[in-house]
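Lecture 7, part B: from sequences to assemblies.

Below are the input chains for today's worked example.
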Amino acid sequence: MAELALSRKEQAAGRTGWRPRASRLVWYVPLTLWGAVLLVPLYWLIASSLKERGQVFVVPPIWIPDPIVWENYPRAFSVLPFGMFLRNSLTIVVLNLIGVLLTSSMAAFGFSRMRFPLRNLWFALIISTMMLPGVVTLIPTFIVFKSLNWVNTFLPLIVPTFFGGGAFNIFLFRQFFLTIPYEMDEAARIDGASSFRVYWQIILPLSGPVLASVGIFNVVWNWNDFLHPLIYLHGEERLTVAVGLRLFQGMYWQDWSLMMAASTVMLLPMLVLFFVAQRYFVQGVTVTGFGGR
Amino acid sequence: MSMSSADGQARLLARRGPSKLARREAIEGYLFVLPAILGFFIWVAGPMVASVAISLSRWDLFTPPVWVGAANYAKLGPDPLFSKSLVNTAFYTFVGVPLHLIVALLAAMLLNVKVYGISIYRTAFYVPSIVPVVANTLLWLWILQPEFGLANAVIDLVGLPRQTWLHDPVLAKPVFIVMSLWSLGTQMVIFLAGLQGIPETLYEAAAIDGAGRITRFQSVTLPLLSPVVFFNLVIAIIGSFQVFAVAFIATQGGPNDETLFYVLYVFRHGFEFFNMGYAAALAWVLFAIVLVFTLIQFAMSRSWVYYESYLKR
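Predicted structure of the full complex, as structure tokens:
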């Protein structure tokens, strides 16, 4: 499994006297140049968010904000109910997290550790939906939610997750469960444990890494999701950060420092999550092939 | 549930044989997967069937649907925006995806070099991909802002004529592609994982046989990485055909519909004009296109994707 940190193989090589040879030093040139180019926009995001209004519209641009103005951040929270957007996003993220961790792990448990007729057929059917472009189901699902009067509530963004939590997540959990020895289940069952107890008290506690990967991936996806909140949420008091940011764009489209401050606020939780749980973050990406967008 | 003692269960097993236990396991198994099966019918199979019916009718959601047969599909041909959005999306996909994959592979190879502090560089290359798509797009709008943006400031430095970027009908689509190169972390990390899975001994053997850097890349790296390339390609094409948020936020499809991508057009008909029938028909066409391309790629993969089951472990 690739990590951004050194892999085990590389660490081992390091310990056995692997040293940077002089010829390797030349690699620092492209690495540093390319890396700098990639980081400039990020720097520009944060620098712009700390600029006084007068320093934003200047040619050539000012690289270092002087003075550093924090005021754009409280302003982002006062001109629009940004705090409420954050709360809405958080609600959707947390409820989805519960739904996905619970039901996709349950399904994966069934598909990997229980025997029942047509099991492989059901599994194949569910997995086949991974390749399905989401657009196809967008219109009919919208009509269903509209007829249920669920438009402009969080329900369309939360309820579906409690039905299996997505094929990819089932697949990931199942792959992990297949690596847990079956003797564990048998021992527990001989001691009289029910299937549910095997799932809840044996398998889940052993599944930390996959719970983390699927969980983080899901948090990122829901935090970033733009299309679904755009379709389902209309009232300002219901908006998530993603669609709320667009309100800034509509109303304060020349106020770039305000928009950059709001964008930074949206980025910050993801950045923290990334640095706290980099390993699972990257693992989720490697295995699913999706970066949360 | 079977909370009885172990020997009780064993006696049960001896008396009635395994069939009762098997039946019980079957019922419990179905209970575990029930939410997922229900989800499959409620959120995938059902909507897909409904979507066929919707695409064969005219429906604005306010008045009852009217059956129109294949009329929605017949409208596609003469609709100039349908073909325009298709061409735009094809350009974005067939120029953008190969470029994206090549750049991501280059980045991964660069980040696979064994130098001190490489994990810091890996993080730096990945971090832009964390920026949520809305924040990402707003940031680029600001960078590409014609008067005070960073892009034209750089252009000034080099001494080239200033550009209007996303407001320029010719430049808009290529600019979107370049923007997407900023967040190549996902593909890059997958490539990096693939590169790290290639046994060092193969490179050593190739070097002993006198293979240079380029030969080693062609005859060791590429074949062994081909399953990963294939995976990235399939996923990237499916994703690229569905590009939406960037264009919706940055250009709303303009200028001159040059960035009117397919899903943007579906969205317009579905959620702005409430032409549910036409939107559903559009969605089905996209589904067919994506399916065809995925199948073609799977068929073609036989000739270039190399699966080396005997090498692994």
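Note for the exam: Chain B has two domains: 6-55, 73-304. Keep this in mind when comparing with the next example.
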